[in-house]
Amino acid sequence: MDLYRTTLAGSLLLNGVVLYQSYRAKTVASSESVANPEKVEHRGRETGDEERVTRLKWRFLPVYLLVNGADWLQGPYIYPIYKDEKGLAESLVALLFMVGFLSGGVSASFAGAFADRFGRKAACLAYCVIYSLSCLTLLSDQIVLLFLGRILGGISATLLYSVFESWLVAEFNGLMLEEQGSALSGIFSTMTTLNGLVAIGAGILAESLVGMVGTAKAPFMASAVCLSIAFITISKTWPENYGARQGGSEESTGLLEQQANDEAPTKSALRLVLQDKNILTLAVASCFFEGSLFLFIFFKFPALKLCHELAGSSSDLPFGLIFAILMCSMMFGSQLYNNVTSSSAAPAKRILICTLALASMCFFFPAYVRKESITLWAFCIFEVCCGIYYPVMGSLKGKLIDDGARASVYGILRVPLNAFVVIALSTTKEGEHHRDLVFITCSGLLLVAALAVHRILA
To answer: Where does this chain mainly localize (predicted)?
Structure first.
């Protein structure tokens, strides 16, 4: 148990050090700007940019954290509510999960086009409604409604990971800042850091609610409340933005818009992904990394449990403590990324290559080493990679994908990811040998992704 407490303390200490360095860097930069008259005018323009970015953050982040908090609340209990509380067979639970991912894959082909055509704000509102309905289906024990809930959940996942980011980037690009790239990277880094904090808080809240109410339905009802608040906030505070096809409201720029006059949005977005080697490379990297992340979520506790038992320990694993450790590691990664990008001009491509290569090693070692500390620390480093991956990938997509069809392309990028997950679920078996094979496969795929980014991404 000391291993986990010590690791958590170390994670908190590292986060504190990085936070302090970030604060010091901002203080020094501010004092240098004031002391140098030549920088006063430039600093004035920067201050104006910072104020506009800050207003955008305050408009977006509370909603973003609410909708992600709604998702995190459900995470710890989505399996127990089916298996334990409703008493469904293991095979039926697996089928419910597979239906959810299939729904996500199918909806990814049109959800983004819907958002570009009818508005990203409208799609975000639709997410709040659809996910709330998914939560409410769990009040029933009827199997048809439970399957309907998983279908709605799959659609919601597609919307969550495409339309909110699309709305943000389109609004950000409308600010016309001097330092677009670094400011956008900073927003994505903040999103990842705060999302880690929300995940920890949501896990604690979900457990408390179940303890007080006595049913696993409680976190899902709390999730619906969060989504209702997000719906009201979006309705009252967010402006709408559209893709290029909406009444010609945006100027047509780039390959996709030239084709949009003759093609349906989804077909046009798919053609862009297939013809643009940079976006196709991001699709490969996204599929392999985020698919590996899903398998990591599925197999991390069994892998740690095996090492724990081989070490001769008969105590239960501290699952809550492990979750907190991993979330702290992810927060450290996002803060580290923010510090690196704000203090140097490190190319996003190089950061992504290093992140993918390091993540590959994090799957390789647990497949061959049965030492509890090494497995735990490898998983921590992988979460650090997650903290770096999301802001750097968000920044690259923000630069490479045109605003006119952003949500459509983001949706298309999730199709191979959902296919990856469905295939993985359909071939999952019990036992350490299968788990080792999964880890080795993920390690190889991440290395392939790193090489693809190195050789192809411009």
So the answer is: membrane
